[in-house]
Amino acid sequence: MDEIPYDVKPHPVTGVYNAKLGIWLFLASEVMLFGALFSSYVLLRVGADTWPHGYDLLNVQLATLNTAVLIGSSVTVVMAWASLKLNDLSKAKVWLWLTVVLAGVFLVVKAFEYGAKFEHHISPATDNFYATYFTITGLHGLHVIGGIIAFLVLLIRGDKMWQDDSEHFTNRVECCGLYWHFVDLVWIFLFPTLYLL
Amino acid sequence: MSAEHDHHSEAHGHHEQSFVQKYVFSVDHKVIGIQYTISALFFLLFGFCLMMMMRWQLAYPGEALPLIGTWFSEANMPGGVMVPEFYNQLGAMHGTIMVFMGVVPLAVGGFGNYVLPLQIGAPDMAFPKLNMASFWVFLPGGVIMLASFFVEGGAAQSGWTSYAPLANIAPAGQTWWLVGMIFLITSSLLGSINFIVTTVQLRAEGLSYFRLPFFVWAQFVTSFLLLLAFPPLEAAGILQLMDRVAGTSFFLPAGLVITGQPLEVAGGGSPLLWQHLFWFLAHPEVYVLILPAMGIVSEIVANNTRRPLWGYRTLVYSVIFLGFMSFIVWAHHMFMTGMGTAMSTFFQATTMIISIPSVIILTALALSFHGGSIRFNTPMLFALTFIPMFAIGGLTGLPLGLTAADLHLHDTYYVIGHFHYVVAPGTVFALLAGIYYWFPKVTGRKMSEGLGKIHFWLSLIGMNVVFMPMFSIGMAGVSRRLYDQTQYAYGAQVQELTIIGSYGAWLLGVAQIFFIINLIKSIRGGEKVESDNPWQATTLEWATPTPPPHGNFTEVPKVYRDPYEYSVPGAKSDFTPQFSEEG
Amino acid sequence: MAESAEEIRHHIAVYKKVGLALAALTVVTVAASYLHIDSVAMTVTIALFIASIKGALVACYFMHLIDERAIIYWVLIITAVFFLVLMFVPLLSEADSVGI
Ligand code: HEM
Ligand SMILES: [Cu+2]
């Protein structure tokens, strides 16, 4: 007995392969991580005497652009998976590259946003509004970087993985995709909370 | 399938593995389990030594520490006498090390890793590489914690709970503590994902959920607690790190004055936020400490009473309910924070409710003895003792859960007594029992019964002599983190009890020497076991060769029956393993 | 899950529509925020309501939750429960400060 069962093929009863359940469990823990930050944010905001409106201090245009970029990248990554399902590796790679590019754009825009703040000597230490803003978006940004690394690995080793076991590779893209959608989903909530309220 | 299997005869493997692949960066759950066990035992010993030093200071405040007092720096122990700051470091690090680097890694990382895949008939964990990563994230976390003793100002000194704002303004060691915690938390998260997936996906054919050994159930629920309760602490850790490194004030209100100097921060933060996030983890965490222990005890009790566990399903439902409830009692640690009556009533009620499943589990275990022909070997002695010790711990928890009593008892030695009864003679005894019990499977040899019994009796006496007096000391009003209680009249009056407690600690230290000798001696020269199932047990781990090779089972295991079919009327022998087709 | 090419093509059409819907909803959120509605409760409700719709679209269609296995649902239900408990934290501290 050497092989791990259901590494690639779905389990007959649960209907999922191991990594899929694994990634969902990971996302569950991520929900609790961002949930705790969100709940801290609410607690601090409700307890504060005054709290500025995000739209007065932050750049809503850039953030709207970034929202669109992330939504776009969610579409591209799911298209990559669908292309693999249709047995079209080269198309899938194009979609994955697009995802990476969009993720990169997101980070660049974010960097401009941060840069503009630092120029005005605004930092996390300024007040709790900026403290939450920088901490939460910073952590989210780290997740974006994590996603980029994952996609790059898939792209670089993709040909070989696809040849070895195309189903396994498709599964990997699916799991990274699920993670990526989650990163998008977090942003969908962060955007109104931090920028529009 | 014989005991001869012990030399590295996995030559049938497809590729030769190097030493490093096999023992250092191994992906085999058994090797990882052993790595966890050894590191955790080392950390437990280290944390134990910290405690011994504290016990000296408590018993003889201001007197030079004999023998080793001069080993420490002038800043910590001038002339061999401990300074208060160093005492605080010892206390904070003792708690942190014991909980996050000792008991949890041993119970989950060690026993869980080694035993769980075997008991469900799996070749390995679902994600072997992730499993390896989990260990190699854990170890640096531990090293960072230990290294923090050597940084400017020493290790963390704000208690294992790291309450803000004290922790925010503590010396650099606190930053190391936070970074170390982030490593340890990440390691636990990776581990828990692996455990859950393994249990859901890799159970052998015929092993339905209600045929799982109780140990697997306990680990399964524990993994959910780790998975969902640790991230909020990770978030809290990140926030405190930001406070300390980036100058934010998540936990700092405005207008703090420290030794006459106003603190230059923006303010607006909430110290209570830290407590909420911390206890949101830490109450489930105490169940992480206890559930695997209950699992181990159940296995050993069933095996040595030669009876099925009484009320298996009740046990399973109780453990699920415990896990669930443990998420909604956290504020019972915060009754003294000025919480309103509606809220404190709610948490009082949930705290009373959560003790019900604990009592059910204890009762079921106790009823399992009825009509058994009990074998009093060393693992059984430890497992047996777990029951009354945990009961004392649980019962003393009830007054703490009632606000009226907690007003007086909060943050006194009574609390220390309460939780040590659950974790020390409780969980730690269960873990020791587990080591004695599974040692033959891991090494092919039994541990010495004689040394084991000495270890047991001395530990039992030592533990009770340390912790029993704490209830009185606490009720006398002595606060749990005092450096020198004799400076207060009410403390001086119970100083005798504290001295007695320290004698218990020395005895406990002596007892562990027998354990260490036993471990070392038995690995090399212990009595060899003749069969793969020396305890005549029923669960799947005993179906493997001894020690289990890579891939665990020689043939794909299949399960035919419930986990504890001992003394079934009409059966051929007094035990019918899960993997045996006919009874 | 061995979906046929036919089904996948159908999925792709759905993805495109969902992508467009998300973009449209983003515009709606931003527009709503420019209204500067006086009532705080109203603003928060609108913002979070739209965000929830968007989140649900992502989860249901991109993450395929609309048609997933029971085990995944179980994991998510458990998480959702404890997530709600976590949201209890700010409520609790609010309750303290108004003396409930
Ligand atoms: C069975 C029912 C239990 C009840 C009713 C209970 C109740 C409590 C209460 C109310 C406190 C807070 C005391 C205070 O700070 O004033 C407390 C503290 C504590 N309990 Fe329990 N408990 C129970 C079981 C356990 C178990 C099973 C464990 C661990 C394995 C445990 C570990 C702890 C720890 C570590 C603390 C102290 C934390 C600290 O302040 O450092 N308890 N318990
Ligand atoms: Cu508690």
Structure description:
The complex is a heterotrimer of chains A (197), B (583) and C (100). Chain A has 7 helices and no strands. Chain A is mainly α and 197 residues long. Chain A has a single domain (18-196), classed as Four Helix Bundle (Hemerythrin (Met), subunit A), CATH 1.20.120. In chain A, helix 5 (128-156) runs antiparallel to helix 7 and helix 6 packs across helix 7. The longest helix of chain B is centred in the N-terminal third of the chain and has 36 residues, at 84-119. In chain B, a hairpin with a 2-residue loop joins strand 1 (257-258) and strand 2 (261-262). Mean pLDDT of chain B is 93; it is low at 1-14. Chain C has 2 domains: 1-68; 69-100. Chain C has 3 helices and no strands. At the A-B interface, helix 1 and helix 5 of A face helix 5, helix 6 and helix 7 of B. Copper (II) ion binds at residues 283, 286, 329, 332-333 of chain B.
Short structural description:
The complex is a heterotrimer of chains A (197), B (583) and C (100). Chain A is built from seven helices and no strands. With 197 residues, chain A is mostly helical.
CATH architecture of chain B: Up-down Bundle
Number of strands of chain B: 2
Can you tell me the residue ranges of chain C where pLDDT is under 50 for at least 5 consecutive residues? Answer: none
Biggest pleated-sheet summary of chain C = none
What is the count of helical runs of chain C? Answer: 3
CATH top level label of chain B: Mainly Alpha
Alpha carbon gyration radius of chain C = 19 Å
Strand content of chain C: under 5%
**Total beta strands of chain C:** 0
The topology string of helices and strands of chain B comes to HHHHHHEEHHHHHHHHH
Tell me, rounded to a whole number, the average pLDDT of chain B.
Answer: 93
Q: Tell me the domain tally of chain C.
A: 2
How many H/I helical runs of chain B?
A: 15
**What ligands does this structure carry?**
protoporphyrin IX containing FE, copper (II) ion
CATH fold title of chain B: Cytochrome C Oxidase, Chain A
CA radius of gyration of chain B: 24 Å
- Our estimate of the beta-strand percent of chain B is under 5%
